[in-house]
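I hope you will forgive my troubling you with a question about protein structure. The full record is reproduced below for your convenience:

——
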Amino acid sequence: MGRKTKSQICAVKRRDLLATAVATLAAVGLSADSTRGAEAEAGSTAGPRPGNPIAVSTYSFWRFQDNTKLPVENCIRLAAEMGFDAVEILEMQMDRTDHGYLQTLKREALLNGLSLCGLSTHQGFVSPDAEKRQANIARTIASIELAYQLGIPTMRVNTGRWGTSKDFDELMKHRGIEPPLPGCTDEDAFSWVIESLEKCLPAAEKCGVVLGLENHWGLGRTPEGVLRIVKAVNSPWLRVTLDTGNFLEDPYDRLAMLAPQTAFVQAKTYYGGGIWYTLDLDYPRIAAILRQHKYRGFISLEFEGHEDYQTALPKSLAVLRSAFTYQV
């Protein structure tokens, strides 16, 4: 066969290119058809997540009832066996915070298919002593860095309280109300708390840990007190940790006040009767309040009753799972 002319060579190349283009278009068409088929097949299940993930605080396994703290890694395993989605760690329950141990906890959570979703800490900024406040600021910053090492995205913080009650039992006897220290006022305390939290925010932002001010005792006893502080600080790194069991009277309107600023929810149950008090909480009603404000985050169980946790926690999970699973 003789040599091909330049025009013949160009014609062959054009035919090859055309064949390649047709094959490519066919493949794309098949891929698109396959994708459309998969979309149609999955249409019944696609859409928004049908509820909130349910976590459990390691506090639920201990509750300060004796000096034997259940190790956090044991709490993680038990949480997985019971069917929870995540674990919130009570820092006070941790006997170790060295790097190796923290990585062990992360591995334990991974292997059990759980998130480490929150760190619950203790601090107090309600003090006229500037050195004491600074010590609590440093303590809080250390906790923020601990949360960062654990990969935890949010951390519970408190205002602290006056400490004029002789113990927690007396504080509960007076429904969480206690008088200021002599010569001090609540107005003084608000300025101390706001200033102290502002000093913690650079660490929170650097570590990517959202602080959640809890409706706890002290200045956090009322929704007005919590919101006054959060709004004064005015930072995306300070929101609210909403505790369903810390408004002892008429909780629902008060919870609704905090819902728009909520970054994390702690949900109390009291099987066997409460250790300090018992509340009959309507969780479908609470879920509706949070859903109205588009809260999609974690609901973390804090069991606070006398019943054995091995039976009380699965019952609590069933209540929360039912209330916080929505029809879509």
About this structure: The chain has two domains: 1-46, 54-323. The longest helix spans residues 6-42.
